[in-house]
Task: structure prediction
Amino acid sequence: MIRIPGVVKSFSSVFIRNKFQCYLVGGAVRDIIMGRKTSDFDIATDAKPEEVTRLFHRVIPTGIEHGTVTVIFKGTTFEVTTFRIESEYQDGRRPESVIFTPSILEDLKRRDFTINAIAYDLTKGELLDPHGGREDLKKAILRAIGNPDERFREDGLRPVRACRFSAQFNFKIEEKTFMGIRNALNTVARVSSERIRDELIRLLASKIPSIGFKLMLQSGLLGLIIPELNRCVGVPQPELHCFDVFEHLLYSCDAAPRENLTVRLAALLHDVGKPEALSRDDQGNLHFYGHEETSAEIAEKITQRLKFSNHIVQGTAHLVRHHMFSYSEEWSDAAVRRFIARVGSENIPELLSLRRADQIGFCNTKEISYTLISFEKHLYKILAEARVLTLGDLKVNGRDVMESLSIQPGPQVGIILNTLLQSVLDDQSLNQREILLDMAKKFYESRLKSI
Ligand code: ATP
Ligand code: MG
Result:
């Protein structure tokens, strides 16, 4: 038997007291059977949304049009959905309308995969598994309920979910289900970017996202969603690498920290401009001049198209743009300070974890180069001791400069401040008001005044 958390049992007792049916469904049942942690409780009931609303104090009408309300009960969130059948899916984007049904069995039929259609009857304390979900869990197989072609035509997000679940649990996609994905590409093309993005976020948070991206490539989904990655298939990498650009990107992504979406996206896309940047010299050696800039631009386009937040779009592009640093032990403290100033001290930890992932993705070994480790030490030493790394750390600001030189606001002020910053990055002892104002004056008179 399976262990149901106490808070779920006491939640269900409210339904039972009021003579409503109450089932735990979806991901929570699947995860409990698999022995995985779950915090996401979906409840299915014959109570209508307005009846559920009357039963509890804290109810948020999150999806009334689908028959869903969110209830907060003893600090835990429950998504409560009235049993439903989805009527005609007109355009494969979303159900057109919902029709309620008194039957849990009907409700389970409209779900996507067998492993997601197991219900736990909280009244009787027993599992209801009409589609053989437990068997598929045991065999580690992802199988659509009913005819995959029809089910995917109803909702084009399901094929993407198939690849996501397959990566999340390391499950094989059953053959007909997989064929169904290939047949459903036209429907997938009509799904909103926001819904696809949400699945990609879950895929990118899984332990081994490459499993899902490979399935997306084989089934044709990747060509629809991120065709820029398809172009990397078969593009060679220089020596030291074991894989082509596509696989290198996937394994770098696997190696990036799963809790950091920006770094995972940056790892997935950091060389995506290589097909464009590729050239060969007379000796036949490969070069990818400027690929970090091309890759950053493409990464920005992809993440924007997929409707990621601006914060993620910019963060990803920034990491990609700066991933090609080449440190050597001759770098002075000043050189390291200039590097930090260019990249932004707040971005250093993410940039380093991208570079580690990049190195692991060379050949899928855990080896990190001695040079990267010594750069990390040097960076953290400077971060710990440096007093000046950005304009804000200077002992003078724009107003001080304008007053002392009697000049008006304008681009000159920025140029002067940046020149002062470069000098202080070289020699921190220059960060004193009088010294800086004196330097500003000399620089202004010799370089700017006559312009
Ligand atoms: P996760 O643990 O990632 O949340 P989940 O299985 O709970 O996985 P949700 O997206 O939260 O996935 O959906 C909850 C349940 O609703 C699913 O288990 C499935 O039964 C059903 N479901 C969700 N999306 C669809 C869909 N597009 N088509 C059919 N059924 C779906
Ligand atoms: Mg869920």
